Amino acid sequence: MPTAKPGLLNQLNHNYDGLGANPIRVFDAEANQVPDVVKLTLGEPDFNVPAHIKQAAIASINADESHYGPSNGWPKLRRAATGFLKDRYGLAYDPDHELVVTVGATEALHACLAAVLNAGDAVLMPSPTFSLYDQLVRINGATPVYLNTAATGFKLTPAQLAAAIADTPTAKAILLNFPANPTGVTYTRAEVQALAAVCAQTNLVVIADEIYSELTYGFTHTSFAEFLPAQTLVVNGVSKSHAMTGWRIGFVAGPAALMARVALAHAFAVTVASNPAMAGATEALSSEAGRADTIAMKREYLRRRDYVVTAMRALGFTMPTPTGAFYVFAKLPASCGQDDVAFCHALLQQNHLALIAGSGFGPGGEGYVRVSYAASLETLQEAMRRLGDYVHAQA
Ligand SMILES: Cc1ncc(COP(=O)(O)O)c(C=O)c1O
Questions:
Q1: Residue 299 belongs to what domain range?
Q2: Interior angle at CA 22, CA 351 and CA 173, nearest 5
Q3: What total of structural domains would you count in the chain?
Q4: How many other CB atoms are there within 10 angstroms of residue 333's CB atom?
Q5: What is the CATH number for 181?
Q6: Best residue among 181, 274, 326, 372 to mutate for probing ligand 1, ranked by most atoms within 8 Å of CB
Q7: 349-386 pLDDT tens trace
Q8: Ligand 1: which atom is nearest the Cα of residue 107?
């Protein structure tokens, strides 16, 4: 095996200095070493991909769709994705110039940031937030600026946003995610409108990660792009709505002049997403059955959410009732101390239950744990039993 020439190593891309592996995946790998562990760590739906979606991918393979597709994605999928955004959220995008199909929402976010950022720019982000954002911003030469939302129920307020904009003259973009990972919180229509009104006074590009938009409980998601289409790049995909995380299909929509740049960043990095996955995503987004799949999964998530929230509150955890996604973000009971990292390690080692420490999601997450309830009810029941054993042992 070759060893890298030492002189090379200090001249590598410094944007990557100090960036390790995703802390969630590191802890998840640690949990895998624990016998009979129960893991509620990853944002990974436990459902199988519905059969009609698999059939669409198989048909694509059998039809020998084995050559490069158009870089922005097959027109059929672009139409399905713009149709989905129109049908669900009232957004109007031209599939030929205003939408790009990407390799998951992750590549969509990367393409947006690569298209927009210059070295020295700042990117605002409410926190706690999805930990990948920090890394994506840094590798694009910019600096994340966290807006701690713990004091306002994990929601960014218009006043806090306006103050942050005034304090951060280098801010080029804001990264919003709702429904939110890790908090499960989302914004009402009026709240989205109020934040959009603040952004409208600026030249900020709003990158709205709405990958959990189909998983809202009791109301329909409002897209940021509805109120601020000229400044918003809206990111979505089929990973969460159709349990297709491993298929790696996402998309970005926005004004044509911005999307031309996003399309370049996408094309230079990956050329195009894979054909069978695009065929499956087309079926997921354009068929009646695809709509029904999400509704059925959502019904099940709601049942699980209610179970976990009730069980954790009974153990002394406190939390806002999550209104979207599939996470509970809970404050530790006083009897367990407030060191969330120590709590998660002890819970893993002593009771073989893996939850994610809140501080890994940025300022405001300290003293919290994230529970992913994208797991079967039986798994959740066992998890709550183990959590109860641990908590009662601390009292
Ligand atoms: C907020 C958020 N954005 C993006 C992603 C990545 O989505 P994808 O698997 O489509 O790349 C995730 C995955 O957990 C997420 O939680």
A1: 7-48+291-394
A2: 130
A3: 2
A4: 17
A5: 3.40.640.10
A6: 181
A7: 999 999 999 999 999 999 999 999 999 999 999 999 99
A8: 11
